[in-house]
Amino acid sequence: MMVSLKREREDEVDDDDNEETGKLSSKVRRGRVVEDKRSRHCPYLDTINRSVLDFDFEKLCSISLSHINVYACLICGKYFQGRGLKSHAYTHSVQFTHHVFLNLNTLKFYCLPDNYEIIDSSLEDITYVLKPTFTKQHIAGLDKQGKLYRAYDGTTYLPGIVGLNNIKANDYANVVLQAFCNVPPLRNFFLEEENYKGIRRPPGDIMFLLVQRFGELMRKLWNPRNFKAHVSPHEMLQAVVLCSKKNFQITKQGDAVDFMTWFLNALHGALGGTKKKPSILTKVFQGSMRIFTKKLPHPDLMPEEKEALLVTEEYQEQMSESTFLFLTLDLPTAPLYKDEKEQLIIPQVPLFNILAKFNGNTEKEYKTYKENFLKRFQLTKLPPYLVFCIKRFTKNNFFVEKNPTIVNFPITNVDLREYLTEEAQVSEKNTTYDLVANIVHDGKPTEGAYRIHVLHHGTGKWYEMQDLQVIDILPQMITLSEAYIQIWKRQERDVTNNHAAV
C-alpha cells in the first residue's frame, strides 16, 4: 500500500532527471502499463493553435500559481503545472481533450494523457518564439539590411522596431527599454546570452534577474520569426518592480529619466560592474568631465564679511574629476506672459545654447540646505553613445511643473569639440554625433504620455513608437517635439579623412 501511494505521488510531478538520461520507465496509467518515455510522432499536432500562444507573460500555473514544472497547452495557450497523474496539465488534457503540451523550461513537447515525448521538426518555430537564439553572423548583419518579416498573424514588421504593450501605466519604462534595445553594442551584447551567462553573483542576489529579463526582451524584440508584431514587457517589468522594491510600478505612471537612471546603475551592478570595473554599459555610455566648484558666502552677510571670506582657502575654486552616464541639460525658464491672442508663448532654444553648460566658462548656482555653490563643467572624455536628459520638470513640496520649451537640434553632425578641455581636443579624434533615439513627453507633468523616435540603422528611416503603435516619421517632425531623453551615436569615420574629402 505504501509503495503504491509513493508511486502515485511521483506521478504528479516530472522526473526530469530520467528525461535527460532517456531511460524508459514504466508507470501505471489507468490500470495499464505503458512505456511513457518513448519519443514518437503525435496524431494531434494539427490541433495546435499558434495564434493563441503567448510566451511573454510570467511562466506560472494558471491554477496553482506555481513556477515549478510549468507546461503550456498549445491548443488554448494556458499554463499548467506538471504532467503526471492528477497534475493540472494531465487533468486539463482529459477534461478538454487538449493533448499537446510544451515544458517551458526544458523546451520538450509532450502528448497527454498518454505522456510521451513528441519529436517533430514542425514544432521548432514554437520553441524559437519561446527562446530566440542569435548567431554571431546574424547579429553582425542586423544593421546592414531592412527586410520586413511577416508574423504568424499576417502583419509585417521590422525586427527591433516593435511595439510594447502598455499594461496599465508603464509607457515611461517602455520608451527607455526600446531606446536601449536600439543601441547596437548594447543590443549585440544582450542578444548573445553567452556574454553574461557565466557572471557570478552572491547567493540570494535578485538583481541578476534584471539582466536575464532584459536579455529575453531584447531577443524577442529582434526575433525575425515572431508570431505577432508586438511584444509584452510583462516579465521584464515584473523584474523591475521586484528589483526596485516597488519604486517603479506597472500600474502607476513614472518618470522616464528616474527610471533610466536607476536601470543603468542597477544593470551595471548586476553585470558585476563597479566604479573601477567596467561593464558593457560603462563602455557604451560613460564619459568624464571636470567640475569646478566655488563656495559662496551667505547672502545675508555684510559686504566686508563676504570679501574677507572670499580670500580664504575654503572659498577658493576646487576642481574634481567625475564620470557620467548621461548629461543633464537645463532649459531656460519659460515665460509666464501670454501673447496678444491670450495663448501661452511656447519658447524655443537651440541645443547649443543649453550645451553651453559644459563649455568650461558658464557658471551655474547650486543651492543646498545650508550652503550655495557656483559650478562650471568641462568634458574630458566623450563616450561612443552620448545620452542627454533635458530637464523639463521642476519639483517642489506642492506640485510638479513642466517646462514646454522646444529644443531646436539638428538630427546629424552635432560637433561637441568646443566642450572638451584642450588636452581632450587633441586626444579625441571623433567628436561629431548623430541622433539615434529621441524620447518625448506629451501632456501634463503627472498625466502625460511617452513616445519614442528611433532610427533604424538598416534602412536609415525614422520610426515613432507609442505603446503598440509603430509608424514611420519624417526626420524634420522629430525636432518639433518636447524632447526629454536623447541618445546620440558618435560618428566612426576618421576626422582626418573626412577633412581630406572636403
TrEMBL record:
Going by the UniProt record, its keywords in alphabetical order are: Cell cycle, Cell division, Hydrolase, Isopeptide bond, Metal-binding, mRNA processing, mRNA splicing, Nucleus, Phosphoprotein, Spliceosome, Ubl conjugation, Ubl conjugation pathway, Zinc, Zinc-finger
Q: Where is this region: Disordered?
A: 1-27
Q: Which reaction does it catalyse?
A: Thiol-dependent hydrolysis of ester, thioester, amide, peptide and isopeptide bonds formed by the C-terminal Gly of ubiquitin (a 76-residue protein attached to proteins as an intracellular targeting signal)
The cellular location(s) given in this protein's UniProt record come to: Nucleus
GO molecular function terms noted in the UniProt entry: cysteine-type deubiquitinase activity; zinc ion binding
Where do the UBP-type domain residues begin and end? 40-137
Q: What class of enzyme is it?
A: hydrolase
Taken from the UniProt entry, a GO cellular component term is: spliceosomal complex
Q: Which Pfam families match?
A: UCH (PF00443), zf-UBP (PF02148)
The record places domain USP at 162-491
Q: How does it assemble?
A: The U4/U6-U5 tri-snRNP complex is a building block of the precatalytic spliceosome (spliceosome B complex). Component of the U4/U6-U5 tri-snRNP complex composed of the U4, U6 and U5 snRNAs and at least PRPF3, PRPF4, PRPF6, PRPF8, PRPF31, SNRNP200, TXNL4A, SNRNP40, SNRPB, SNRPD1, SNRPD2, SNRPD3, SNRPE, SNRPF, SNRPG, DDX23, CD2BP2, PPIH, SNU13, EFTUD2, SART1 and USP39, plus LSM2, LSM3, LSM4, LSM5, LSM6, LSM7 and LSM8.
What is this protein called in UniProt? Answer: Ubiquitin carboxyl-terminal hydrolase 39
- Organism (species): Takifugu bimaculatus
